[in-house]
Specification:
The complex is a heterodimer of chains A (about 100) and B (about 675).
Chain A (H helix, E strand, L loop, with lengths): L3 H21 L3 H26 L3 H31 L13
Helix pairs in contact in A: 1-2, 2-3
Chain B lengths: L6 H18 L7 H28 L6 E9 L12 E7 L1 H24 L5 H23 L3 H19 L6 E3 L4 E2 H30 L4 H6 L1 H4 L1 H18 L8 H4 L5 H10 L4 H8 L1 H5 L2 H23 L4 H21 L3 H28 L17 H15 L5 H15 L5 H26 L7 H5 L6 H16 L7 H4 L6 H6 L12 H11 L7 H24 L13 H7 L4 H46 L7 H20 L1
Antiparallel strand pairs in B: 1-2, 3-4
Helix pairs in contact in B: 1-2, 1-4, 2-3, 2-4, 3-4, 3-11, 3-16, 3-21, 4-5, 5-6, 5-11, 6-9, 9-12, 9-14, 11-16, 12-16, 14-15, 14-19, 15-16, 15-18, 15-19, 16-17, 16-18, 16-21, 17-19, 17-21, 18-19, 18-24, 18-25, 19-25
The chains are: A mainly alpha (about 100), B mainly alpha (about 675).
């Protein structure tokens, strides 16, 4: 049996990578992928604690997260496609009309 | 007739309603003749009812007061000790109000009749409007006089003030004073506002009496004067006197009365000479026991009255407008009445009020007849020599001049003498007050003689226009003049002082008024006080006869001096002398208007400007500042909305970190 710390460290690494990606990348698709990365880091944490504590709650919650993530990806990609059709771009910095 | 007391004010009020509606509807419903007859009939009805009621009162028992309680007017529940505080609407008739209602309705009726002739050239709706105002005035004046409680009196008090305002401004579109470009409407406003100053005093005095005596009923208050304490009595009496000063044109609130001459002449006769302006004197006499309880208030009343009499008489010397001379004369005579009240001779004050109502109404109506004959000319410098052309007016006017100058046996002689004797020997009377009164009598005789000579004697100085239309007034105007002349000649016989009448001519008025609280027989120490006063003057042994002789001599001297200056020269006299500092002071009317302007109006306007500036800068500044601050904050804050998702995400991230740090710390 592996220590739970190992999973937590991996999850933290994944979350940080995803977070930094969201903050510094400009390509919308990459940002969406980074968000998935963060969600999966959270999923990993859930599963790790669930295995550690012999409880099913964490497992069940992961399924919910996956479902929401799938919906989010669907909506996000639809927005990206709509945006791309108008602007021929997937750069988030091009979507900056809502400002002063 | 006593039980119909309530009808006395109601009849003229009905006349006001009918004529007023008619005037509002363009005078289409009543012909001109009907308007005049209706107005006169209403007042005549009141006069006859008054006569009947007074007759019945005279025969009635029980302290000679009849109170008619009509309805609960202002329900106010009960006081802490269970007394009923409700103000009731009621009328009271006692000898004092009896004298007043007879004077008001009798002289009022004559002036109504006269007005039909005087206002004959007015268009129909103005004619109806004029008579509806006059009738409203009569209703309000009678309410004032008959009111059994102070609030009822106050309703009449304000009502007559309103009518005064409406009638002064009757020719509201005309300029009244060319020099100051004052319109008639301005003059009305001045009268109204000056009166409001006094009314504040009246209201405060009324409230003070209500809070201390627990009732507003006049007889109730007078019965409780003894329990009020001297300080309350003094304060209440002085506050009520402030109101009287406004209404009866005493210093310093007299400035409105000369400008009230902007109204038509019958109005000047009725309101600003015979009746309304005496309301202050009436209320002072009505509250006599209150004043008697406070020597300080009495001294104030006497001092103000004497000073007003003297100052107004002096100003009267130098006026060139026939109505202005009479206006200042009215102020001066009202000062006499106040002087009488201030030395405790209330019945002498009422006596003078009555005789003055006759001769001053006559003087004004005579002046109106002259003005009417001269097509509106009011300047004494453009009159003269009218004796032969206006014989009836001249005869009546001469009687009035002799009456006001105090020449026996005309009315003014008796009442003025009664006041002067009281000023010397009455309660708080002094040689100084007496001397001021005698001096004023001389000045009065001087300026009235001057007025008479400039109008009726000498060579005519008429303008071409006035000369063409010169005519004696119609009978509807001259008959009231003659009736008033008879009154001015004979009214004095009602109050012949006992030392003059011997036993054959009793002091009818004095004994009639004596049951009224405070108006009873003069104080028994009067004779000694008078003797002491005479001794102080260096005239030991001065009797009533001596005092009378001195006053009469001074009056005659005034007339002779006037004749010497204005009567002998056949050429046009320089109407008003205007050289030297004293004469300049008199010509400038003692600069009272200017003083009020500098001391009251200018500071008031400066205060208005200051508060306007405060409003515009501080209050508006605060409100606008809040708005500007919000706008400024938005100007700065909007730059947070960059439109870059990354920026929002970074803030979101940092926020999350901060919250986590705070939670997990």
């Amino acid at each position: 049996m592996m220590h739970v710390e190992f999973f937590l460290i991996i999850a933290a690494l994944l979350f940080s990578i995803g977070c930094v990606g969201v903050l510094i990348r400009r390509n919308t698709i990459v940002i969406l992928m980074c968000i998935e990365l963060m969600l999966n880091a959270v999923n990993l944490t859930f599963v790790a604690f669930a295995a550690e504590g012999q409880a099913m709650t964490g497992h069940i919650f992961v399924f919910f997260v996956m479902t929401v993530a799938a919906a989010e990806a669907a909506v996000g990609l639809a927005i990206v496609i709509a945006f791309f059709r108008r602007r021929r771009s997937t750069d988030v910095d091009d979507a900056s009309l809502m400002r002063w | 007739m006593l039980h119909r007391l309530w009808l006395i004010p109601v009849l003229p009020f009905a006349g006001f309603v009918l004529n007023g509606l008619n005037a509002l509807l363009g005078a289409r419903f009543l012909p001109r003749r009907a308007v005049g007859v209706l107005a006169c009939a209403a007042v005549l009805g009141s006069f006859l009812l008054s006569l009947g009621a007074v007759r019945e009162l005279g025969a009635g028992p029980g302290g000679r007061i009849f109170t008619q309680d009509l309805f609960a007017w202002i329900p106010m529940g009960q006081s802490a000790d269970g007394a009923d505080l409700t103000v009731r609407w009621g009328y009271a008739l006692d000898p004092l109000s009896a004298v007043l209602i007879l004077v008001v309705t009798g002289i009022g009726f004559l002036i109504h009749v006269y007005s039909i002739g005087y206002m004959a050239d007015e268009p129909g709706d103005a004619f109806a409007r004029f008579f509806s105002y006059l009738n409203l005035f009569m209703a309000m004046m009678l309410t004032l006089v008959l009111g059994a409680s102070l609030p009822v009196v106050f309703v009449g008090w304000e009502g007559v003030g309103l009518c005064s305002y409406l009638l002064i401004g009757f020719y509201y579109d005309r300029t009244f004073d060319e020099a100051s470009r004052m319109t008639c409407a301005d003059a009305g406003r001045k009268a109204f506002i000056t009166n409001r100053v006094g009314d504040i005093g009246f209201m405060l005095g009324m409230l003070l009496l209500f809070s201390r005596a627990g009732t507003l009923d006049i007889q109730g208050i007078l019965a409780r004067v003894g329990t009020l304490g001297p300080r309350v009595c003094t304060a209440a009496a002085l506050l009520l006197f402030l109101g009287a000063c406004g209404k009866s044109a005493q210093i310093p609130l007299f400035v409105w009365l000369p400008d009230a001459m902007a109204g038509p002449t019958p109005v000047s006769a009725l309101i600003h000479a015979a009746t309304m302006v005496t309301a202050g004197v009436y209320v002072t006499c009505r509250m006599a026991p209150l004043y008697l309880a406070s020597p300080e208030a009495m001294a104030t009343v006497a001092g103000v009255g004497a000073l007003t009499a003297l100052v107004a008489a002096l100003i009267g010397i130098a006026q060139d407008d026939i109505k202005k001379v009479l206006a200042y004369s009215t102020v001066s005579q009202l000062g006499y009445m106040m002087l009488a009240a201030g030395v405790g001779a209330f019945s002498a004050g009422i006596f003078h009020l009555m005789t003055h109502a006759f001769f001053k109404a006559l003087l004004f109506l005579g002046a109106g007849s002259v003005i009417h004959a001269l097509s509106g000319e009011q300047d004494l410098r453009a009159m003269g020599g009218l004796r032969g052309r206006l014989p009836l007016t001249h005869a009546a006017f001469l009687v009035a001049v002799l009456a006001i100058a105090g020449i026996p046996p005309f009315a003014g002689f008796f009442s003025k003498d009664a006041i002067l004797w009281a000023a010397l020997g009455g309660r708080g009377g002094s040689p100084l007050l007496w001397a001021v009164g005698v001096l004023t009598a001389g000045i009065t005789a001087f300026y009235m003689m001057r007025l008479y000579l400039l109008v009726f004697a000498g060579a005519p100085r008429l303008s071409e226009r006035a000369r063409r239309h010169l005519h004696e007034s119609p009978a509807v105007m001259t008959v009231p003049l003659l009736v008033l002349a008879a009154g001015s000649a004979l009214a004095g016989l009602l109050g012949v002082p006992s030392f003059l009448g011997g036993g054959r001519l009793p002091d009818l008025l004095g004994s009639y008024l004596s049951p009224v609280p405070g108006l009873g027989a003069a104080d028994p120490g009067a004779a000694e006080a008078a003797a002491a006063g005479a001794a102080a003057l260096g005239m030991a042994g001065l009797t009533e006869w001596g005092a009378l002789a001195i006053a009469l001599a001074v009056s005659l001297a005034g007339m002779v001096v006037a004749w010497a200056i204005y009567g002998r020269g056949r050429k046009a006299p320089a109407a008003a002398p205007a050289a030297g500092p004293i004469l300049r002071l008199i010509k400038g009317k003692f600069f009272v208007d200017e003083a009020i302007d500098a001391l009251v109006l200018r500071p008031y306007r400066a205060l208005c400007r200051l508060s306007a500036a405060f409003d515009e800068t501080v209050v508006d500044g605060l409100v606008n500042g809040v708005g500007a601050a919000a706008e400024l904050a938005s100007q700065v804050g909007r730059y947070a909305q960059t439109g870059y998702v990354r920026n929002y995400a970074l803030v979101f991230f940092l926020g999350t970190v901060a919250i986590l740090y705070w939670v997990l710390r």
